[in-house]
Design a protein that fits this description.
By secondary structure, the protein is an alpha/beta fold. It is 36% helix and 20% strand. The strands form three sheets. A five-stranded mixed β-sheet has the order 3-2-1-4-7, with helices on both faces. It has a five-stranded mixed β-sheet with strand order 10-9-8-11-12, sandwiched between helices.
Length: 329
């Protein structure tokens, strides 16, 4: 493994300042205090209350941030020097404005997070798409530390993507780059939540994995020999574990999931020529079983692709947002 250190890491001593971070998702808002090395010192979450609209979300995020600031200031003389925010939606990094958002956060598009949160908290504020922030976290402080060309996929309910090209986040013209979950892997395929058909997200997200299982179990009904039929509700871990124990139905499901994911990964390798591809999100908690499935599905000539499991878990977005603020100051 490449353990080379960054020669361009800012040499900020750890006692000269810490960072406030927010990660605004569809169901919860996480907040944290992160030191200059990417260590998470404090963490808290509140519900997003998406249906209440953008003003409520901003108010909840501001309160969470103020509470974290105060609890930090009670125990530490080290100043909080900037705020980093990761948020769902397409974000224009320069202005800190939400350009586009899905129905998960109604009315979120058009919100200027940099102005709203920065003014409220009186801190220099940097805003990034949440999947990009998570990729940046893994790149600066997680499993991809030391590499300069990294593709990061977050396999959760959907599929988030982030690309580091020559040490920089790839943002595109409008902040919409690296939406890797919506790369097509099948023409006229399954319907994706984005409204298009055949997206990778419709085949290799956590939701797709469960959909395969539930569809197959329904068609088999009672009497199926699969151990999956014995569960009232399935998880990715149950399916991968059953496949590893030789359950034929579970193996078929993992094979289908992995085949499409491998097709996507080969395309990403061609498009970005990364040194490694990092897999994170809920599905990656099955660990080595995920990597084994993908390796089996990869064509022989693509088995050199370096696959790594994300190491920062749910905190990647918070840590990445904080380190983006650090590196952007
Ligand atoms: Zn899509």
């Amino acid at each position: 493994m490449n353990e080379a250190s960054h020669d361009d890491l800012p040499t900020l001593p750890s006692d000269s300042g810490v960072f406030l971070a927010l990660d605004i998702g569809g169901t919860k808002i996480a907040g944290g205090i992160v030191n200059a090395e990417g260590g998470l010192l404090k963490r808290a979450t509140v519900p997003t209350e998406a249906a209440q609209g953008p003003d409520r979300i901003i108010a909840s995020a501001s309160k969470l941030a103020r509470d974290l600031l105060q609890s930090h200031q009670r125990v530490s003389p080290i100043p909080v020097v900037a705020l980093g925010v990761g948020s769902v939606g397409q974000i224009d990094f320069a202005s800190g404005r939400v350009v586009l958002a899905t129905s998960a956060l109604p009315g979120w598009a058009g919100t200027c997070l940099k102005r709203a949160l920065g003014t409220e908290l009186g801190l220099p504020t940097f805003v990034e798409n949440d999947a990009n922030a998570a990729a940046y976290g893994e790149y600066r402080a997680g499993v991809a530390r030391g590499y300069r060309h990294v593709v990061c996929l977050t396999l959760g309910t959907g599929i988030g993507g982030g690309v580091i090209a020559d040490g920089q986040l790839l943002r595109g013209a409008t902040g919409g780059a690296a939406e890797l979950g919506h790369v097509a892997v099948e023409l006229n395929g399954e319907l994706c939540p984005c409204g298009r058909r055949g997206c990778l997200e419709a085949y290799s997200s956590g939701s797709a994995l469960l959909r395969y299982a539930n569809d197959r179990l329904e068609s088999l009904r009672a009497g199926t020999a699969s151990e999956l039929a014995g569960y009232s509700s399935l998880t990715g871990a149950i399916i991968f574990d059953a496949a590893a124990r030789g359950d034929q139905l579970a193996q078929d499901i993992v094979e289908r999931f992995s085949r499409y994911l491998a097709a996507g990964l080969v395309s990403f390798q061609f498009a970005f020529d990364p040194e490694c591809i990092v897999l994170g999100g809920g599905v990656s908690s099955v660990g080595e079983l995920l990597l084994e499935g993908i390796r089996r599905a990869l064509p022989e000539q693509d088995r050199h692709i370096r696959l790594l499991l994300a190491s920062l878990g749910n905190d990647a977005g918070l840590i990445g947002a904080a380190l983006l603020a650090r590196d952007s100051l």
